[in-house]
Write a structure and sequence with these properties.
The complex is a heterodimer of chains A (about 300) and B (about 400). Chain A is α/β, with parallel strands linked by helices. Chain A has twelve helices and ten strands. In chain A, strand 1 and strand 2 form a beta hairpin. Chain A is globular. In chain A, about 45% of the residues are buried. Chain B has two domains: about 60 residues, no CATH class; about 220 residues, MetI-like fold (Orthogonal Bundle). In chain B, helix 14 runs antiparallel to helix 17 and helix 16 runs antiparallel to helix 17. Chain B is built from 17 helices and three strands. Chain B has about 400 residues and is mainly alpha-helical. Classes of the chains: A alpha/beta (about 300), B mainly alpha (about 400). The interface between A and B is medium-sized, with 24 and 20 residues.
Chain lengths: ~300, ~400
């Protein structure tokens, strides 16, 4: 395993990933598609989601161009890039939330467990059961805290008896680091919590159905620094159980929480790399310019 | 060179004067509208409140064998012309219901003739001088007075003003509106849910949307013609019945409910739908568990206002035969019935002066119900209003 990793990572080091310039690793390109330039040896490397040549159009304008990426299980993968670069659009491809937008056309492969997510046979409800989502603005249901967490498991028939349900709610709230704060007011409305607590409630809601992957679309951009830090710690804990893919505008956040980072620009992945390498030794000029704040 | 404050203020004077003038004009318009409203209400109250009082006189009622055959014999000849003839006609029936009355003579407060009522209320009456003298004497003895008019609320229409009441029209309105609600509410809400949550946004649905909006603006009498052609002539629904009236009004209320529901659905933020889809709800679960509960207050408000509008409607009901003389209180959906505004319309056409106050009284009842309905809508909206 380690050997293989070392070999793979050495070859494309000097190549500019997907930049179109020829490098020494050309003969390996097919194998390298979607792979990070450098491996993070501390991370897991079992494949979770494989994306190949994903293109997406909103009407006439193309928002994603030939995206290749392999996302590994039980890691935090951060998607960074300037506004409008397609990172949120890409994220929504992974649980087919783009289906809700009219005039979207998607081509290419998004594969999970060897199944094409976009296949006609794939039920998007089943997919979303395995790929949960946390949104930019905390959006708890206007119901009680308890009901926010218990709703989805009950809907998916994951719990039978009331006691199972109570247990599941407690576990989800504990995992989301919210239990101590809300255990005495489970029946108050979820919207009565503070912004950071609401976001953790949304995380509890997402993990209550035990998904494989949690998508986070700028989960902290509406929160204050302290709540942000809490959520970042939480992501670090949750990656032991779940694969987390997060979109962030905040490069420090990506550097802090992510094992792997993909840099999007104008609908393309410019660089996909081990986070440490990405921020210390970016392989393309564009990445370097972005992470040093020249644009974005 | 910059201008001083004084220069600028001088230039602004004209603009300030203009806005002050417009403010006064607007306030004047509001005041005028308020004045009309006050005048209208005052007029209705002055004319209509007397309808809730009716003259009664205290006479000996002789429940004899003869009275059961010839009701006029039940009261003495000297006051016979002062007692409501319609009331006397009810005596045999009451004796049948209550056999104990037979052979007794009781001192009772009975409904006075409409002319006595008008005389006591100080209006012109057709009473002869001698009859007026008798009434005056009865008043002095405390045996003739204006009492609360229960008849007005318990009986149907009558050609005798003292016996006329609003009950059959109120019952007709209730039954009609039940039909309207039962038909228009589910169809309207489901139509709106489909258009708003399920339908693709294409030319076809846009055309439907435009047509629904146009439907809300169609003169209501056309709905009456439609009701006549479809429900009565084609489906053979009984004419003049609450069923046909309710169906016709449902056609009219449908666009109002659809538009109100769509507005309510649209006001539910998209983030709630995303949250629900995100945890794996199907489209119907999103609507049923999350969107509809949040939209319900708005839907209720719109439906109540739509119903209130239907309740005040007369024109389409003329065509389906609900503007009719209905003396008995209707209890079935298929019998002939009338509704409150139609009853008011009928009374307004009666030549007898006593019907003026009945007309205004009817309007007061209708207005009270309408204001109650609209107030309920406002309270519902305020109570469940949610801000995101």
């Amino acid at each position: 395993m380690n050997m293989q990793v070392a070999e793979r990572s050495s070859a494309p080091m000097s190549a500019q990933h997907r930049s179109g310039q020829d490098g020494p690793g050309q003969q390996n390109r097919e194998q390298q598609r979607g792979q990070p330039v450098t491996r993070n040896d501390d991370a897991h490397h079992e494949l979770s989601i494989r994306v190949r040549d994903l293109n997406l159009w909103y009407g006439q304008s193309q928002a994603l161009k030939g995206i290749d990426i392999d996302v590994f299980q039980k890691n935090v993968t951060a998607l960074i890039g300037p506004s409008g670069c397609g990172k949120s659009t890409f994220l929504r491809c992974l649980n087919r939330m783009n289906d809700l937008i009219p005039n979207v056309r998607i081509e290419g492969l998004v594969e999970m467990d060897g199944r094409d997510v976009n296949a006609v046979k794939m039920d998007e409800v089943a997919l979303r059961r395995r790929v949960g989502m946390v949104f930019q603005k905390p959006n708890p249901f206007p119901k009680s805290i308890y009901e926010n967490v218990a709703y989805a498991p009950r809907m998916h028939d994951l719990v039978g008896r009331k006691s199972d349900q109570d247990e599941l709610v407690e576990r989800a709230l504990r995992d989301a680091g919210l239990w101590e704060e809300v255990k005495d007011k489970l029946h108050q409305p979820g919207t009565s919590l503070s912004g950071g607590q609401q976001q953790r409630l949304c995380i509890a809601r997402a993990i209550a159905v035990q998904p494989d992957v949690i998508l986070m679309d700028e989960p902290t951009s509406a929160l204050d620094p302290i709540s942000t830090a809490t959520i970042e710690d939480l992501m670090d804990k949750l990656k032991q159980q779940f694969t987390i893919i997060t979109v962030t505008h905040n490069m420090q956040q990506a550097a802090r929480v992510a094992d792997y980072t993909a840099f999007f620009h104008l609908g393309e992945i410019i660089e996909y790399n081990d986070t440490k390498t990405m921020f210390s030794n970016p392989h393309t000029k564009k990445t370097e310019d972005y992470i040093t704040g020249r644009y974005g | 060179m910059s201008q001083s404050f004084d220069d600028i203020s001088a230039q602004l004077k004209r603009r300030h004067r203009k806005s002050a003038r417009l403010k006064w004009i607007s306030m004047g318009a509001l005041g005028l509208a308020g004045l009309f409203l006050v005048l209208f209400f005052a007029d209705m109250l002055v004319k209509g409140l007397p309808a809730f009082k009716q003259a009664q006189i205290q006479v000996q009622v002789d429940y004899s064998e003869q009275a059961s055959q010839l009701p006029l014999a039940a009261v003495n000849e000297d006051v016979r012309s002062l007692v409501s003839r319609g009331y006397l006609r009810l005596i045999p029936g009451r004796m049948e219901d209550n056999p104990d009355l037979l052979g007794t003579t009781r001192l009772e407060w009975v409904l006075a003739d409409g002319q006595v009522d008008q005389y006591l209320k100080g209006h012109h009456s057709k009473l002869k001088a001698s009859e007026q003298a008798v009434v005056d004497r009865l008043v002095e003895q405390g045996r003739a007075e204006l009492r609360f008019n229960t008849t007005f609320f318990t009986r149907g229409d009558s050609k005798m003003p003292e016996l006329t009441g609003i009950a059959s029209a109120a019952m007709g309105t209730l039954l009609t509106l039940l039909v309207t609600l039962a038909v228009a509410f589910p169809i309207g809400v489901m139509t709106a849910v489909y258009l708003e949550e399920f339908a693709p946004d294409n030319r076809f649905t846009q055309a439907i949307e435009i047509n629904i909006n146009n439907l809300a603006a169609i003169p209501s009498i056309l709905f009456g013609l439609l009701g006549l052609a479809i429900f009565i002539n084609f489906f053979g629904v009984p004419r003049s019945s609450p069923l046909v009236g309710g169906l016709t009004l449902a056609l009219m209320t449908l666009p109002v409910i659809i538009i109100a529901t769509r507005t309510a659905l649209r006001s539910v933020p998209e983030s709630i739908r995303h949250a629900a889809f995100g945890v794996g709800c199907s489209r119907w679960q999103v609507v049923r568990d999350h969107v509809l509960p949040l939209a319900l207050p708005g839907i209720m408000t719109g439906s109540i206002i739509g119903l209130a509008q239907a309740m005040g409607e007369t024109a389409p009901l003329i065509i389906v035969g609900m503007v009719a003389f209905i003396p008995d209180v209707t209890t079935s959906f298929t019998e002939a019935a009338t509704v409150l505004p139609a009853q008011i319309f009928t009374w307004a056409g009666e030549p007898d002066r006593a019907f003026i106050e009945k007309t205004s009284g009817g309007i007061l009842v209708l207005l009270t119900v309408l204001i109650t309905l609209n107030a309920t809508a406002v309270v519902l909206r305020k109570k469940f209003e949610r801000r995101w």
